[in-house]
Model the fold of this input.
Amino acid sequence: MPSYKAPTVPSSEITPRDLFYARRKFMQMGAGATLAALMPPALWAGEKLSGVKKSVYNVPEELTPYKNVTTYNNFYEFGTSKEDPANHAGTLKTRPWSISIEGEVSKPKVFDIETLLKMAPLEERVYRLRCVEAWSMVVPWLGFSLTELIKQVEPTSKAKYVEFISLKDNEQMPGQNSAVLEWPYREGLRMDEAMHPLTLLTFGLYGELLPNQNGAPVRIVVPWKYGFKSAKSIVTIRFTEQQPVSSWMQAGPGEYGFYSNVNPDVDHARWSQAKERRLGEFLRRNTLMFNGYTDEVAHLYTGMDLKQYF
Ligand code: MTE
Done:
């Protein structure tokens, strides 16, 4: 991946966090109908995600402005520069959409997106997401723990890993005409990682359905791992006995391992991971082990050499 380039979003275009929440509070008070006409359309998509409850899993940090979160993206299906997804992901059709759950499960099933959205109560969770390119952000994601879906399909005793496969359609995703990665985009987790309550099946951010460039209509967010583990626009979830080979492992086996835990002590082959830049900020901050989620996830890796299993 190319190295970090500072985003160039004028501060005048950023929806300040307080304004975002003030708007939402106002709508919750029942004034939504009048306000609807005044609101930018993207935020109104959030109206569909009603009944969202606050989660216990929130980091007490300043949110990264909506504008940065939605205009500085990696989504190689739409190009390799940070502006490409926001500029080109309009061609992605997110309805109808379904996810096929297959492999080592007793009850394989295809769920359409509307059914998925109603499977469990949606929560808002403020998570950090850190990219392997050493930038990071703090986002109010909307979704529920992936385990809610996993328990519906009853994995067999052979299910040791979970593979996530994104859409392959080079008409909707013109970046797939380039061989920069092998398509479709594929990622994987070990079963216990996938079943960890922090692993979020994600449908929205900042109160609205996911914008296309952030992985609409459904993606994974795994907050203690580098961002590329958080596959976007998923169409297949496959339970496997063997460790899956992800698109990034295939593209650069010496640079991208299966585990990909955020770890300031393990450099990327071409750059240090000791520091990171929060989108919208100027000074770099220290990278936190497991992206700050050590208390929640360190036990998953007891006894593993995380330099070997990077
Ligand atoms: N998923 C797909 N299908 N294609 C991608 O190129 N990029 C990954 C990940 N998921 C990617 C993907 C990378 S490198 C990052 S850092 C995150 O998405 C970025 O998520 P964001 O756009 O919400 O910040």
About this structure: The longest strand covers residues 135-145. Residues 17-36 form the longest helix (20 residues). Residues 2-18, 23-47 have pLDDT under 50 and may be disordered.
